[in-house]
């Protein structure tokens, strides 16, 4: 029984090693396959580019030979080529005009942004000036109000003194002011005003 277990263990270990080796080989094969596929793709692209260049050279050679013949077809080809050159020049001119217009647009946008920033600064300065004027006006108004209150307080004190003098005159004259209704009203009014 022990011998069978040892054989099974050794068989399992061998199969695990083969499995690990097989996994490593598969990743190497996949990497190599990917490399080869990339190389094939690059060769295909290179071949197509070379074929296009060769075809262009062949077409140019055929056109050159045709133009040297001097027949009606060569004249039409020459006119077509001149027309193509004229169209190409027109396209280049329009592209230059477009670039100029785009540059003008960029300059206008920059100027607009600078004017906007300048306007913002001026607006901020105006707001600061208005705030200072309001503070100055409020300060002046508060000083005027303080002067008015001081003047009013002075007037009130003077009025109180005058009322006290009148009251003392009436009391000092030993007139019975309680019997005279007009005098009574004056004295009572003077007392009210003194305590107000």
Can you describe this structure?
Helices cover 94% and strands 0% of the residues. The chain is mostly helical and 196 residues long. Helix 1 (2-69) packs across helix 2 and helix 2 crosses helix 3 (181-195). It is elongated. It starts with a helix and ends with a helix.
Oligomer: single chain
Structural class assignment: mainly alpha
Shape: elongated
For the record, give the distance between the C-alpha atoms at the N and C termini, rounded to a whole number: 125 Å
Helix content: over 70%
Total number of strands: 0
Fraction of residues in β-strands? under 5%
Major beta sheet summary: none
Integer average pLDDT: 82
Unreliable spans are none
Order of helices and strands: HHH
> Number of helical segments?
3
> What radius of gyration results from the CA coordinates?
56 Å
Nutshell version of this structure?
This protein is an all-alpha fold and 196 residues long.
Write the layout of secondary structure elements.
Layout: H1 2-69, H2 72-172, H3 181-195
Helix pairs in contact: 1-2, 2-3
Task: Pick out its properties.
single chain, 196 residues, mainly alpha
């Amino acid at each position: 029984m022990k011998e069978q277990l040892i054989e099974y263990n050794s068989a399992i270990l061998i199969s695990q090693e083969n499995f690990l080796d097989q996994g490593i080989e598969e990743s190497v094969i996949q990497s190599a396959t990917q490399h080869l596929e990339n190389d094939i793709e690059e060769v295909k692209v290179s071949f197509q580019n070379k074929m296009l260049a060769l075809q262009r050279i062949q077409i140019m050679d055929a056109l050159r030979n045709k133009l040297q013949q001097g027949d009606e077809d060569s004249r039409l080809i020459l006119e077509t080529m001149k027309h193509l050159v004229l169209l190409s020049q027109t396209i280049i001119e329009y592209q230059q005009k477009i670039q100029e217009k785009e540059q003008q647009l960029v300059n206008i946008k920059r100027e607009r942004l600078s004017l906007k920033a300048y306007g913002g600064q001026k607006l901020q300065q105006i707001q600061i000036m208005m705030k200072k004027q309001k503070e100055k006006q409020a300060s002046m108004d508060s000083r005027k109000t303080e002067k008015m209150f001081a003047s009013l307080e002075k007037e009130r004190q003077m009025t109180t003194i005058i009322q006290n003098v009148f009251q003392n005159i009436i009391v000092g004259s030993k007139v019975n002011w309680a019997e005279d209704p007009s005098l009574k009203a004056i004295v009572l009014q003077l007392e009210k005003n003194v305590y107000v």
